[in-house]
UniProtKB/TrEMBL annotation:
GO terms for molecular function: zinc ion binding. InterPro entries: Znf_CCCH (IPR000571). The keyword Metal-binding applies. The keyword Zinc applies. Residues 99-133 are annotated as: Disordered. This is C3H1-type domain-containing protein. Keywords: Metal-binding, Zinc, Zinc-finger.
């Protein structure tokens, strides 16, 4: 299929022709301008003053580059120094914190040792107190049995032992309240000494008033006339 020829008017043809001519003129002017600039550049390069100017400019650029490199190196050195100081300061602070932690740990260890020592002493004192209480209970039980045997048999061998003064805590001072009143609300748990005779006006062991009546009927072990005997009174604790 053949394409139909496009016909343009004379006006459009002139318009297109002028456009192409202007383009050619611009291209020619550009080429001429490039030629003139290249010739001028060649003349400049051939000129000693221009060569000196280029050398000076290159030298200035080199100096500026070296200065920038020095400034960069200086900033880097300053940053490294600041980093070193920061690391040293951090290490010192860490050492202080570790020293403080060690000191606090040592204090805690010392407090724990003191607490354990106090607990050990308390446990030891409690054990000794329990042993003393057990020993006192055994002694009172033996005295009670001997008192019952003496009240039942009247054997004189028991009388001397029953008249012996017994101390609850011989190594400590006497309980002032017990010495003044003959009784103590703490009993054998008292930290003071309770000197008690085996047989006296004041019942000083776990012997009932009925047993003291039997004792008073068999002998004058209490050493108190019958009207003044306190065997009927309540038993006092020590």
């Amino acid at each position: 299929m053949a394409f139909a020829e496009t016909k343009i008017s004379h006006r459009e043809w002139r318009k297109l022709f002028k456009k192409r001519r202007r383009k050619a003129i611009r291209q020619k002017a550009a080429l001429e301008r490039c030629r003139i600039e290249s010739e001028a550049e060649e003349r400049k390069r051939a000129c000693p003053e221009y060569q000196a100017l280029l050398a000076e400019k290159e030298q200035q650029e080199q100096i500026a580059a070296e200065r920038e490199e020095l400034e960069r190196a200086l900033r880097n050195a300053i940053w490294l120094e600041d980093e070193r100081k920061a690391q040293v300061l951090f290490a010192q602070q860490r050492q202080k914190v570790e020293a403080k932690e060690r000191e606090e740990q040592a204090k805690r260890d010392e407090l724990r040792k003191q607490y354990e020592e106090s607990e050990r002493k308390l446990a030891q004192a409690k054990e000794e107190r329990l042993q003393q209480q057990e020993q006192m209970r055994r002694m009172l039980h033996e005295r009670h049995i001997k008192m019952q045997e003496f009240a039942a048999t009247g054997v004189e061998d028991y009388l001397t032992e029953l008249r012996t003064v017994h101390n609850t805590r011989p190594e400590t001072e006497n309980c002032k309240f017990f010495l003044r009143t003959g009784a103590c609300r703490h009993g054998y748990r008292c930290s003071g000494n309770h000197p008690t005779p085996g047989a006296s006006q004041e019942c000083s062991c776990s012997i009932s008033a009925h047993e003291w009546k039997i004792l008073c009927q068999k002998t004058t072990a209490c050493g108190v006339p019958e009207p003044d005997c306190v065997a009927d009174s309540s038993v006092r604790t020590f």
